Fold each of these.
Amino acid sequence: MGLLSKTQITDVDDRQWEDVPVPEWGGEVRILGMSGTDRNAYQAAMVTLGSNGKPQSVNLNDQLAKLLAKCLVDEDFQRLFTDKEVRDLGRKNGAVLERLSTVAQRLSGIGKDAVETAAGNSEAAPSGSSTTD
């Protein structure tokens, strides 16, 4: 397998999506994994910076709705909710939001430590190259 070119990387559609039944809402929703830019914005929205520019606290207000607002899309993969409509989504059943956010996290590559990572509270990954056998 050869090295990829910039064009090969940028041209590939690598975002995953999944249609998820939501019986409480009477149908299905489509969840699209976040792009790197959206994921960074979501994580940054959860962190409050101090006057020194360093993370001071984690803001968990409407965290599930913030995530799902970036991931719920229509059949043409256009977002259903804007960032300004997060509160509307946040008013829905918390159990449903939790269930859907689990799918959104998986598709977006967000683990349980996302909040700590965004706040800078996790250990840094080792640097340097690695080899495999």
Amino acid sequence: MIEITVLGNGRVGGGLAAALTRTGHDVTVADRSPGAAADAARRARIVINATPGAGSLERLVAIREELRGKILVDVSNATVDGPDGLPADLLYPGSSLAEQLQQALPDTQVVKTLNTMLYTVMTAPAALTQAPTAFLSGNDQEAKRIVRGLLADLGWHTEWITDLGGIGTARAAEAAVLFVPHVIRSSGFVPFAVSIAR
């Protein structure tokens, strides 16, 4: 059992919290207010960022001390949205939210994962007709090992997880969000994930 705090109580955060609780972890969900986030992060070993990516950096820097020495699992995408509310561009072109977080939080181990799929797939990867891929980006090998364990708890098979390397590789995974509006307009809100075919 790991003490986990999920920041963000929308569809992504709520779904992850419920699934991780079912697997036996001690999960706290905090809303976006700095006080609630700080209190919950202080008690956790792992903090999952499921807040809207456009405001994540500011929110997390505000609780820098509470995140010191913790693993921060970033599942958000920082985008500029179009008129229809769907992602139209990246907020950090030439970089990524995960890189920005790691730079701002040097005493926290940032791991990027689960951001290349519709939120329902995060906790039910086997529901797809083809095997999806969960990418990992992060500088700390032990942190990534622990996050692999969480992914396994969520139903991700070992062969479905691809470690891309250091945190700089997160910009590739985050760029995949630009597929999302086109896939949704083409097929609707049906479960999908970016996958590497081998």
